[in-house]
Amino acid sequence: METPEPSEAPEDAEAAPSAEQPAPAGIAAQDWAAASADPQYRAAVTDLLGALAYGELSAFERLADDAKLAPTLADKAALARMASAEFHHFEQITERLTMIDADPAEAMAPFAAPLDEFHRMTAPSDWLEGLVKAYVGDAIAADFYREVAVRLDADTRSLVLRVLDDTGHASFAVDKVRAAIEAEPRVGGRLALWARRLMGEALAQAQRVVADRDALSTMLVGGVADGFDLAEIGKMFSRITEAHTRRMAALGLAA
Amino acid sequence: METPEPSEAPEDAEAAPSAEQPAPAGIAAQDWAAASADPQYRAAVTDLLGALAYGELSAFERLADDAKLAPTLADKAALARMASAEFHHFEQITERLTMIDADPAEAMAPFAAPLDEFHRMTAPSDWLEGLVKAYVGDAIAADFYREVAVRLDADTRSLVLRVLDDTGHASFAVDKVRAAIEAEPRVGGRLALWARRLMGEALAQAQRVVADRDALSTMLVGGVADGFDLAEIGKMFSRITEAHTRRMAALGLAA
């Protein structure tokens, strides 16, 4: 998974935490050994790592699939390299799940259906759509995990930030898409529609996950004690949507 | 690429080189710097590494595809791990091509059509067919490259043998296939037919490559000076076919 450009979301969240949010300092200042004493926190982290692991595995499959659409052997190799990088992230996360006594397959299972459905609804019809999807999907996922990272214990946070580290793949996608739009401006309109559809499907699946996974959702809004506030989830989604809009503009696409 | 069990072919070839073959000691005793002075040898090695690189890239894609058919998340992860290992082999070979001043994409290009055609003709229809294909395909490729390795300069030989190193993947396939046949013996008949078809298609494509690539084919039969002998190529193919038959028997399949 990649971080195409620094997301502004976590800074926002740190600079101006909304009044409803408990200060994240509590758990964020702890390590896993201390934080995991709370069974609800443990369940939330298992969910989070399960979702992240399945996301990486699923990104691996998607990129490997897109490699088939590559116009040149060099492009095919570049996509295969990205796929392989996602797989190594997947391995780091599943090792971590095993280390905290969670079964990786069980932890991933609840997220398989929403992610598979997202990919089914957004199968790219050509190479450029595949690139835009990889770029947009990775960026949204990175924004989301950065939002969450500030609420995690130090050990889990360091893993999450490590697997989101920019591997230079985003710039590959951006260069190719920009060049294609310059060569044929009409392509921009089609890809802008495509990016909008990706965002819509991503939000639909994310809302489904939020509705299903209580422990995870409660953690997302910064509290495990008082249940969660749908308005706060809505704010997080809109921060992520705004970051997406800025990224699309940078790419030369109206979002 | 994997070496499911030690192939006997190279030992045969070393123990009883046929009378027509010049002793391989000449080039095999040299390093790349010395051997590459012969432009025909250089062309043959470029071809060989190009074929091997495309084979690895194509194995990456095939395994990533098969991961979709996996019955469990653990199986899916195991296939993704194999795919990623093939990709790392691919990277080693393309780095080597670059080091010897060959363009990897150009070196691979002549082998893309035969390999793509092979995969098109042998798309597995289920998980077990995919496993048998990965096992059979890797084993045949490993046999072939071991046959060739004895004729290579020391530097190229060490790379070729390194990327054929057993990564433990074959035993994964063998275990799963054996268990499936034990659970339902009829499956064995279907998979035996499938393995026969794989071998037939592999030989058809290999013969196409032999007919097209003079420098490579000449090297395969151990001589770059006198042109090549189709009978010798035939012998190599039959050694590889025999090894395949033994492997299928070990798997519980009549070949």
TrEMBL record, chains A, B:
CDD domains membership: Ferritin_like
A Pfam match: MiaE_2
InterPro entries: Ferritin-like (IPR012347), Ferritin-like_SF (IPR009078), Ferritin_actino (IPR059125)
Biased composition (Low complexity): 15-31
Organism superkingdom: Bacteria
Region described as Disordered: 1-31
Residue ranges of domain Ferritin-like in the record: 39-223
Name of the protein described by the UniProt record: tRNA-(MS[2]IO[6]A)-hydroxylase (MiaE)-like
Lineage, broadest ranks: Bacteria, Bacillati, Actinomycetota, Actinomycetes, Kitasatosporales
